[in-house]
Amino acid sequence: MRFICLGYVDESSWEGKSEVERQQLISKCFDFDDELRAGGHMLGGEALGSAHEAVTLRTKNGFVDITDGPYAETKEALGGILLLEARDLNHAIALMSKHPGVTIGPFEIRAADEQINAMAAERQAAAVRNIEQIEQPSSQMLREALEFSYKWIKPLADDLADAPMTSPTPTPGNHPVWIMGHLVYSSAGLLAMISGEASPYEHWKDHFAGGTQPRPDAASYPDYAEILQAYDATHQTALGLLETVIETGLNEPPPAVWDSVRDDPSFQTIGKLFLFISMHEMSHRGQLADTRRVLGRKPFA
Description:
By secondary structure, the chain is α+β, with helices and mostly antiparallel strands. The protein has 2 domains: 2-112, Alpha-Beta Plaits (2-Layer Sandwich); 136-294, Four Helix Bundle (Hemerythrin (Met), subunit A) (Up-down Bundle), CATH 1.20.120.450. It has 10 helices and 6 strands, in the order βααββββαβααααααα. The strands form 2 sheets. A 4-stranded antiparallel sheet has the order 2-5-1-6. The protein has a two-stranded antiparallel ribbon with strand order 3-4. The termini are far apart. The model has no long low-confidence stretch (mean pLDDT 88).
């Protein structure tokens, strides 16, 4: 059975002790708590601040009335709460009668209301499930996000096939060859984390991995047409892989995770990886649009 032990303290007596005496008593209480914990009886606890700093709420004339101080002005104020596991009330009494805290105030022992606590636990679990459902994207939403990013990226990339090495800024920036190669390399790598298989574009790492610098020499890169074909293929792979993941599987961790993102919240579930792919692609769309602007081309309708 679980019992809640309410520890009261005579604050005037506590304040009358020297700092050395206070620390000695606190140490004895902690030592006894360790004994309870070692025996499987200590489930938790909280120490409370001074009753002088308490605030009490009451309903008065239909309104909430706020007053400074504890619920009742008494010599002994509630000083802490201890959650105890015991066979029965007599066992709880036997355990707590040895607690050093009894020397500065009484302990009130009450059995936990298991029925109400079970109801509260279920409500808490339901709230957590609801939050997870809100935070976790659905397969339909992920498909729409992947399709959206592809439809907003591909026309711009195709239109730049005649000038794929154009920088979007006066100083050397991310030209279309690097942008599209980077999207292919990154998305294929993320999909490999989901499938557990090797990326077919891992050999492009030195060209397009995050942190690499775009080079002005077109001959040092794969052909732009090959990159665009790879982009189409990677998009289809993403849609096909999404179809194989059942809805509940989106909450599961991916089979493989890069060491560089192992602790990043954005990469902890399969669903979040799919979402990251679409968001990452859209983050580079503006660079393609800027390249078209540099070339003097009109925005797409």
